[in-house]
């Protein structure tokens, strides 16, 4: 990837920070992020989980596996929005340290969450403008040039209890990825702006009353943790439709 032209302070993995940011961008209270403390339920949430955001340590092992998986992928996936006519909105990350922001955008742009945004909010307008474009580079340019997005992000980036880097260009040891299931696809997708495109993680059949915290999805996340040999530096949030 070419050097970043823009750098942000990384977001803390805190639902309060995430929720403050999306409210500034007009996302209604019917959509909120919540911490998931256990992969195995029950989960005391006010509604169904529409997307999952995993925060993981960027260990050497993780970076090797990511590079190997991307190298093995078919070239046709590079920058594309999905396969077999499925529409997955994916954003290539071109802003350094903003993987939390890209996870939020992926969560809100895909599946039932998009229906909750309406049409009048800044977030809805931004997502609509990006979704109308087929090229990942064009979507990336829209995100980079959005002064409204950058202003809202800057107002919350220093919130939270963790120390923030002295410089937005400093490297951090954690990364955010998002898991969604576009409506009607019956598939689980991993969306990470640092990858070559959307990653199809397999069939996702949800039973009555199940959402993205069903075992078919959480088993994928559990696999990440197991491959890290018991590394406990993971956290998980869910985007929940409330009420």
Automatic annotation (TrEMBL):
**Listed GO biological process terms:** protein deubiquitination; ubiquitin-dependent protein catabolic process
What keywords is this UniProt entry annotated with? Answer: Hydrolase, Protease, Thiol protease, Ubl conjugation pathway
Residues the record marks as site: Transition state stabilizer: 93
The record's listing under Gene3D superfamilies reads: Peptidase C12, ubiquitin carboxyl-terminal hydrolase (3.40.532.10)
Reported EC number(s) for this entry are 3.4.19.12
**Which residue ranges does the record assign to the UCH catalytic domain?**
7-241
Keyword Flavoprotein set for record = no
> Which domain of life does this protein belong to?
Eukaryota
Output one GO MF annotation.
cysteine-type deubiquitinase activity
Q: Where in the sequence is the active site?
A: 99, 175
Feature type site, description Important for enzyme activity: 192
SUPFAM superfamilies named among the record's database cross-references: Cysteine proteinases
Instruction: Choose one Gene Ontology CC annotation of this protein and give it.
Output: cytoplasm
| Family stated for the protein in its record | Belongs to the peptidase C12 family.
Return the protein name. Answer: Ubiquitin carboxyl-terminal hydrolase
State the organism named in the record: Staphylotrichum tortipilum
């Amino acid at each position: 990837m070419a050097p970043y032209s823009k750098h942000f302070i990384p977001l803390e993995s805190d639902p309060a920070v995430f929720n403050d940011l999306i409210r500034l961008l007009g996302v209604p209270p019917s959509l909120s992020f919540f911490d998931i403390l256990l992969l195995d339920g029950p989960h005391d949430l006010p509604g169904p989980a529409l997307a999952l955001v995993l925060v993981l340590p960027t260990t050497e092992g993780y970076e090797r596996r990511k590079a190997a998986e991307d190298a093995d992928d078919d070239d046709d996936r590079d920058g594309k929005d999905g396969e077999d006519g499925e529409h997955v909105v994916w954003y290539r990350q071109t802003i350094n340290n903003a993987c939390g922001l890209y996870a939020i955008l992926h969560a809100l742009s895909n599946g039932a969450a998009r229906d909750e945004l309406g049409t009048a909010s800044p977030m809805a307008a931004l997502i609509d403008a990006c979704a109308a474009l087929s090229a990942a580079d064009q979507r990336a340019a829209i995100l980079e040039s959005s002064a409204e997005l950058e202003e809202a992000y800057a107002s919350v980036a220093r919130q939270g209890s963790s120390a923030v880097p002295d410089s937005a260009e400093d490297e951090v040891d954690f990364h955010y990825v998002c898991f969604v299931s576009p409506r009607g696809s019956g598939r689980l997708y991993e969306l990470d702006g640092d990858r070559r495109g959307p990653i199809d993680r397999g069939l996702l059949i949800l039973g009555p009353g199940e959402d993205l915290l069903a075992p078919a999805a959480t088993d994928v996340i559990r696999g990440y943790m197991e491959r890290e040999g018991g590394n406990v530096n993971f956290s998980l949030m869910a985007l929940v439709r409330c009420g």
